Request: fold
Amino acid sequence: MRVNDLPLPAGLVKHYESNGIEELYPPQAAAVEAGVAEGGRVVAAIPTASGKTFIAELAMLTADGPALYIVPLRALAREKYETFDELPGVSVGISTGDFDAAEDDLGDHDIVVATSEKVDSAIRNGASWVERLACVVVDEVHLLGALGRGPTLEVTLATLQRRVPDLQLVALSATVDNPEEIAAWLDAELVESTWRPVSLRTGVYADESVEFDDDSTLGVAVPPTGPNDDEATEAAVALVADAVENGGQCLAFVRSRREAEALADRLADEDLSPAPDLGDELAELGGTTTGRQLAECARTGVGFHHAGLRSTHRVAVENAFRDRKLSVICATPTLAAGVNVPARRVVIRDQKRYTGESMAWIPVLDVHQMCGRAGRPHLDPFGEAVLVGDGDTKAELVERYVTADAEAVDSQFADEEALRTHVLSVVASGFADCLDGVADVFSATYYAHQNPDVDLAELVGDVVADLESMELLAVDGDSLSATTLGAQTSRQYVSPTTGARIIAGVRTIESMSDENVTARTALEVVCDTPDMLDTYLGNRERADMYQYARTHSAEFTTAMHEADPFEEWLTAVKTARILHEWTDGSDIETLVERYRIGPGDVESRVERAEWLLGAADALCAALDTGVPEFREVRALLSP
Reply:
């Protein structure tokens, strides 16, 4: 099937052909046969690089009205926006910002790219453009099984289908164990394939050799290791060097930020692909220790990528790799989650990660996502994915990852905090005004599809009682309604637990003497909520943070002897302290060195605090009181 056979305007056909897309890949042709260009619902469960984006574009470009493209990550939203914006004659909008805005001007675009959280927020805030949608594409739909993000995605899809009954839905997924179940829930045709434009072989390294699943082998010369050398690291270095020396690019995945930087430093010693100009470019982006380390590694053709980097550095690394200025990226697994950075070889040095209590195996789906990055269309004759093991672990790695299917996608909707959030949202948005009504809305969720015998009204009953005790819902017999506080909590897109914590904090502030209410007070309130990102509290700094909390105890709304659990509250104090010093003029370099956090961590917490302080200010209005410190500190956080 050829592109010029499709129901597309001549200008779009010319655009695709000029980019080398003339004939459809088999999975793309299968999607066309399933009706994706005729308003049909389709679930495409196909490997990375097999043409999912074109399937999405075909659905959106042939839809009889505006289209929405839902992504899980803001970085992916920007990438997809830039891709769609190149389509001739197509107006594209993007929405990843404030969660308390409906942004009705988005309805003026042909395609809108947004995160699932932003779409959920827009629905809560009464966005009129939602009801004009003709097509919705969901990228990475297997994230329905992710705790936190998954319930939001399934409620959003359930609500969209109720708001727009004739809506075309197209869901894109990696290969998972139960795609037919997702397709049945969405009433969609399933397109399932293992076809790839570049063949992929996956294997395990042990004893200077890789045995692949196609029965081929690869000898890898690893220099003898000394007493201070890590054998897995030296094997990874040898595998990366071999790929680069043979003209390929390489992604090396490790378990943590520190390991990503350490492996990049080790590979920099090899001077695999000198790129001094790139090092200079990266050096101009920022002066933190991490930024300087990245620039120095880049001079040798090696980069690293993790959440502790500033967003500008992460984007620069991704772009440099796509432009083939970087030969290697050492990364944590988050890089595999959707961002388009294919390589000839993927090396997975670590297959376990620390969960906070112990080391645990990485899910099969996550490893398959990493492996799927191997093989650059039009550049590589093949792709290779190698898991680094040894004689003792080789057989287990083959069984666990190479020959195993990815896990099934199961709903996480029954999580207590997710239920609180979405029960309040459904009532506050006017979709239901009684227990049975809420249950009826939830009957369209993936959870209800997977659990048809569950009594949804009973499931929701205890949650309603919790929300009533939080003063967010009013219960009158069988009737439910959001209180003023509940409606504002939902509009501000904070969790009910966060809303209740802020409300309690504001009431405590009302009883405090004016001289004790400071910027620290406002920051402690919002940092001690589940919606604030955690900040690592090391043993070496615990005593110092404890002393800081004692010194400023009169400014905090939580008494030290009442903090429960105390460690979590002390961690919140640390975050508040970092943010307070930021508002006082401390630069990122100082904060990174003083508190052992990444520059990206400062950036993300400043952004999160701005949102939560805005929510706190709005809840003050709902309480008919004023705490000017929320607004004042928020203004100081902005650059």
